[in-house]
Design goal:
The structure is a homodimer of 322-residue chains. The first copy, chain A, contains 12 helices and 4 strands; from the N terminus they run H-H-H-E-E-H-H-H-H-H-H-E-H-E-H-H. Chain A has 2 domains: 12-156, Cytochrome Bc1 Complex, Chain D, domain 2 (Orthogonal Bundle); 163-292, Orthogonal Bundle (Cytochrome Bc1 Complex, Chain D, domain 2). Chain A is mainly alpha-helical and 322 residues long. In chain A, strands 1-2 form a two-stranded antiparallel sheet. Chain A is 34% helix and 3% strand. Chain A is globular, with a radius of gyration of 20 Å. At the A-B interface, loops of A face loops of B.
Chain lengths: 322, 322
């Protein structure tokens, strides 16, 4: 039954037709992912908001960025993100390499520019060598696009096999009885209508508040979701269904990050999307099932990054007004 | 000759009489070192300013902390710091466990309180278990003091053997000819008077500007160094001699972080401390020698931290005025 709705993680690193994942690209991407010099201030790296020690996100309602500004939406986990059909809460980036360019340039996040990033990377010989190795035969391997490609390749390795995968792969003992009851409820109540596939979500767009709009604390009026991307009235307050892998370790919830308790989040979803009161007892079982989606984090050894040179642009904490 | 002034790194993790380093303490300390929830905002961990990918420091003049405030002094590398006689630029912490309590509480850094840290740690069962394992037999293993002890234990493992150690251990080929000339100049000119011992510094206090005070850009008048600790007139503008291991990868230099070029830093030191103009040619050789102090960073695998619970204090980006 479960395989009608869900799919286990692949056993190898997902490959992308337009960005073949190679060991050289992974290594370069790992260095870039951890390098705070991709931000104007030198304070933030990809890792800052997609912290691999805390579920691949940052445990905040919305992230703190350049100049102590707060970002507009909750930072999603980078784990298994490669398997989403598109990136960001509104799906505005078609893949991780498109996504990677966003925060680097966002004024409230890393506040950098492509030119400054390329100048930074070109100032360090090791980066020039690594880009040449990762993008062999290219005339100008060090580029903002290739930075994004390498980061995507590294992120493609961040796959977290969970007990639920073992269950889908045939191990009936991988879930507890309560978790199995939660799974049954998850399907019977209709959660799996949107939260399905390999990431139990991340693969479709739905109005938040399909049946009943949650309060403005959870669904702030000013953020119209995918409407901003498509400018189509029917996309008002539409968001990508949240992928649910590692959901139990990535509070707070929703694009607004306003709900910290997973049980409450389940109950909010019941009313908002299904018009159904999920009882405490049911919600506890569904949460138990969701806990079976907490996966094993791949071992990540910290890279050693090249040192700045005289040509490296200096960090600036200055906040430039828009 | 070199062994008259310098000492190679120990081949095992340095032990402290009052804080025995055990595997359990190291593992706990690593988790704490990487945990941004030790800061009030959830933005900063020890790793933020002592970044293990970039020389154990943060490549900024002075660090950016809570509320985007700038710290008063350049962040020193955590690598080999266990071997300094005291911590901070003014030596105000007698060891790393005393040091570790500082930034966690500093309003311009992590802006947290011991009570809030302990509440945070006690809210997660895994931390309670890890503290019990690391501090067996203690009635209340989860404490701010034990947090600091565990962090010290992890930091004691961050030792970076360098070509200069191989040289001191008898490998004449470990330094190039230019590096050997630089070493000779380093000793002959008197640099080794203050920069000696196992960390080539970090073991004594000296006035910055012993012979001639550098300009206020490099030595800001408002920061009187060790005077603030001892309140003794002779300690005005006195600082701990900077330990020089990994100096080539930890720009910018001095407590003010105002000099980015190591060659310039060497020349500033020549005039300020020795009353001697170091020529470009000499400075290049000394820098070549200093590059032999860039060590191999130990392999650090990221920990997986426990998830917050309903009892975990929530992060706050709010800046509380003093």
């Amino acid at each position: 039954m479960a395989l009608d709705y869900f799919e286990p993680l692949p056993s190898t690193i997902p490959q992308m037709a337009d960005n073949r994942v190679t060991p050289e690209k992974i290594d370069l991407g790992k260095a870039l992912f951890f390098d705070p010099r991709l931000s104007a201030s030198g304070v933030f790296s990809c890792y800052s908001c997609h912290n691999l020690t805390t579920g691949g996100d940052d445990n905040m309602e919305t992230s703190v960025g350049h100049g102590w500004q707060k970002g507009p939406r909750n930072s999603p986990t980078v784990f298994n993100a490669v398997l989403n059909i598109a990136q960001f809460w509104d799906g505005r980036a078609e893949d991780l390499k498109a996504q990677a360019k966003g925060p680097v340039q966002a004024g409230v996040e890393m506040a950098n520019t492509p030119d400054n990033v390329v100048a930074t990377l070109n100032s360090m010989q090791a980066y020039k060598d690594w880009f040449a190795d990762a993008f062999p035969g290219e005339a100008e391997p060090v580029s903002f696009d290739n930075m994004a490609r390498a980061i995507e390749a590294f992120e493609a390795t961040l796959i977290t096999p969970a007990p639920f995968d073992a269950f889908l792969n045939g191990d009936d003992m991988a879930l507890t009885d309560v978790q199995k009851e939660g799974l049954q409820l998850f399907v019977d109540k209709g959660c799996a209508t949107c939260h399905n596939g390999v990431n139990l979500g991340g693969n479709g767009y739905y109005p938040f508040g399909l049946v009943e709009k949650p309060g403005a604390d959870i669904l702030p009026e000013g953020d119209k979701g995918r409407f901003t991307v498509t400018e189509t009235a029917m996309d008002e307050y539409v968001f990508r269904a949240a992928p649910l892998r590692n959901i139990a370790v990535t509070a707070p919830y929703f694009h607004s990050g306003k709900v910290w308790d997973l049980k409450v989040a389940v109950q909010v979803m019941g009313v908002a999307q299904l018009g159904e009161e999920v009882s405490d007892e049911e919600a506890v079982k569904i949460v138990a099932f969701l806990e079976s989606l907490t996966g094993e984090v791949p071992e990540v050894t910290l890279p050693t990054l090249p040192a700045e040179t005289a040509n490296t642009p200096r960090p600036t904490a200055e906040v430039v007004p828009n």
